[in-house]
Design brief:
Length: about 675
């Protein structure tokens, strides 16, 4: 049976996949049908409709090329009717048509850079012809989807209508109503390509945004080549750029991250079954986290009750939420109607009886075990029998919280990251008694909320914060030995993190960091560096005080000789002879402990696999995705190096810093050896 249908519609030949085409299997049939349409006396134009989606498998390149060529052959014009969201080879096929016509729900996208690639050369060329250099660079280097209106404004779509097909038929009958196709666009609509200085400026802008990721810069190189070199030379250059991305490490790293995000949904040994439906939710505490968590539910279409201790506290929290939505609308990232609908879904309350209908209740009150236990004891009395009782604690023992209820099997950790409506990571934490059904439900909930979801065991700091501790401590030890805050942050930001560890401390507040530190006890063979304490004593609380590891002019951080003097005095007291420390040593000493701690978590079963550790770091802590996460990066750069650093640091800082057995075994094998 043929995979394509062919019909005449009042003088227009319409070619359409027989079924919704999410595969490219019909491609080999296309040239013959286009030829038939070209020979059809009664047809004045050809419409290719019903091609959409990202195809499940890559089409055979030769088949795709032949199909595109058939659409471009001289003769009657071929129109592509764009339906839904189109990207990749499906987009290539549509852009090969003389005109592209869209319905209101259509979107054209260039997501390739998100997996470390650039779009196929033919797509870049077509986009450039239609949109000009500036728009092409912006859309392709950002991995953007353009909605129908924007695509039409940019010249990627030639016309819009009720549906792509209807609009294409109307356009085919009266093409003079529109423009004359991409060649015409290039002449009239697209802005002239930038000059050399313009390209340099664009590169600078993109480089600052992507921090070391190569594909977005390759997009610029490709556009510049196509705009300035003779065609054959330009095409060779673009093909080389395309191949380099495809074979490059960044593509592999990003593929690893995507695969790890999928794999994290599988929980070995978990009894199979259905998740519980989450129709309504409640959040307790409308502070920094509670407000963001409530927004996450509301944005996903789930009505949510937000509980506070008083009307006043509630109003403060609701004002923050309203402000967040207003800011999103002003930025243009959220349509006003969607913001209003989401806000409508958040209902404030001050009495616990308002929680009785919720399928899940997420507690986000102060980080204090006694306060939380009291809240959970009250929840136990009012919550529906099936309700999931979740805590957003970042450090406390889930089992101790669960023990204040009569239903510990329904208690679980749902650790969101700040700001909770923006950050992608959800670290679910399994308590000793948490039921399989509750775990399945919170894993599914992560998907519903659009989060990257990981399951962690109940241990101090779970996955992310436990690893972070070593990284943070080592930054201070490096200061004692001779590094400066600027050097440390420069090295980490140069690696691709959005912010270095000391800039992050200043942002979070050094008093907050010190408070957390004071609530902990170190093993007897370890010590804290006194640097943090001295900063706090000197009133250097961080950005909010205008000074911390840096001094601040607005948000601009500047090195401060006072901090340098303070650090040097610490070195003297500790009788450490300061020395210049190479950037490479700084990088190893900060990242290797992170990797070692990750391996230790897998060894202990707190993390299920090294891939989970990677996605926690990429989505919650700013580790550059294009490096694949700490565990992937370490495997590529040599696990034996991580072992060596851990051995050195164990001698200096204590046994806990020594290489974990899991790491040592993996290093001997030359890789993590996980499926
Ligand atoms: P916050 O201090 O901004 O907000 C806490 C809110 O809870 C306040 O509005 C307070 O009025 C309310 N509250 C206190 N007791 C209550 C009770 N009995 N009933 C109802 N409301 C009550 O605190 P934040 O930062 O939002 O933290 C909340 C929880 O989230 C803590 O467990 C914290 O460790 C955790 N967390 C915080 C992160 C952050 O970056 N701030 C990140 C991840 C987790």
């Amino acid at each position: 049976m043929s995979l394509l249908t062919y019909r005449l519609d009042d003088g227009i030949a319409v070619i359409q996949p027989a079924q919704a085409a999410s595969s490219a299997d019909f491609l080999p049939e296309l040239p013959a049908l286009v030829q038939r349409a070209q020979g059809e006396a009664a047809a004045q134009a050809v419409v290719l409709a019903g091609v959409f989606g990202a195809w499940a498998a890559e089409p055979e390149p030769a088949a795709l090329q032949r199909a595109c060529e058939s659409l471009q052959a001289p003769g009657k014009p071929v129109l592509g009717a764009v339906e839904g969201a189109v990207s990749g080879p499906a987009l290539q096929l549509l852009l090969a048509c003389r005109w592209c016509i869209g319905g209101p729900g259509s979107a054209l996208g260039f997501p390739e850079v998100k997996s470390g690639l650039i779009p196929a050369p033919a797509v870049i060329e077509a986009a450039l012809k239609r949109m000009g250099a500036q728009e092409t660079i912006e859309a392709l280097s950002g991995g953007n989807f353009l909605d129908a209106a924007r695509a039409a404004r940019a010249g990627l779509l030639d016309a819009l209508g009720e549906t792509g097909l209807e609009a294409a038929l109307a356009f085919a009958r009266n093409p003079e109503d529109g423009d004359q196709g991409p060649e015409d666009d290039a002449a009239t609509r697209a802005a002239p390509p930038p000059d050399a200085a313009g390209y340099a400026a664009l590169r600078g802008k993109v480089r600052a945004r992507v921090r070391g990721q190569l594909a977005p810069l390759s997009v610029i190189d490709a556009v510049e080549a196509l705009s300035s070199l003779p065609p054959a030379q330009a095409r060779a250059r673009v093909a080389a750029l395309y191949a380099a991305c495809r074979e490059g490490e960044q593509h592999q790293a990003l593929r690893h991250v995507a695969a790890a995000q999928r794999a994290a949904q599988t929980i070995p040994g978990l009894a199979p079954g259905e998740p519980l439906p989450i129709r309504t939710a409640a959040v307790i505490g409308a502070g920094t986290m509670g407000g963001g968590i409530a927004m996450s539910f509301a944005n996903a279409g789930i009505p949510v009750t937000l509980l506070e201790v008083s009307g006043e506290a509630l109003e403060r929290g609701m004002a923050l939420i309203r402000g967040n939505y207003e800011a999103s609308v002003q930025r243009g990232s959220l349509a006003p109607a969607r913001a209003a609908a989401a806000l409508q879904r958040i209902r404030g309350a001050t009495g616990y009886e308002a929680l009785s209908a919720a399928d899940i209740i997420v507690e986000a009150v102060f980080e204090d075990l006694e306060v939380k236990r009291e809240v959970f004891a009250r929840l136990d009395r009012v919550a529906a029998p099936q309700a999931i009782l979740a805590t957003n604690t970042s450090t406390l023992d889930i089992d101790a919280i669960a023990a204040s209820t009569s239903r510990p099997q329904q208690v679980v950790g749902t650790h969101f990251f700040s700001p909770a409506h923006v950050m992608k990571l959800l670290e679910n934490v399994r308590g000793r008694a948490t039921s399989a059904q509750v775990i399945r439900t919170v894993m599914q909930l992560g998907q519903t909320l659009g989060k990257v979801t990981v399951l962690a065991g109940n241990a101090d700091g779970f996955i992310g914060n436990r690893m972070l501790m070593f990284y943070g401590l080592e930054a201070e030890f490096l200061l004692e030995e001779g590094a400066t805050p600027e050097q440390i942050d420069r090295v980490i930001e140069g690696f691709g993190f959005a912010m270095g560890p000391l800039a992050v401390r200043d942002l979070a507040g050094n008093d907050v960091g010190l408070l957390i530190r004071r609530s902990r006890t170190l093993p007897p063979d370890e010590r804290w560096s006194p640097v943090l304490e001295r900063l706090v004593a000197a009133g250097r609380l961080g950005q909010k005080a205008g000074k911390g590891f840096y001094r601040y002019e607005g948000r601009t951080r500047l090195p401060d000789p006072e901090v340098q003097a303070l650090i040097e005095s610490v070195s003297r007291e500790l009788r450490i002879v300061r020395r210049p420390i190479a950037d490479a040593e700084i990088l190893d000493r900060l990242l290797h402990p992170l990797v070692n701690a990750g391996a230790q978590l897998v060894e202990e079963g707190i993390a299920l696999r090294t891939g989970d550790v990677d996605i926690v770091y990429v989505n919650g802590y700013g580790f550059p995705a294009w490096r694949g996460g700490p565990m992937f990066w370490a495997e590529r750069s040599g696990l034996e190096r991580v072992v060596a650093t851990a051995q050195t640091l164990a001698r200096r800082h204590g046994a806990r810093w020594g290489p974990s057995a899991y790491l040592v075994r993996a290093a001997a094998r030359g890789g993590w050896g996980e499926a």
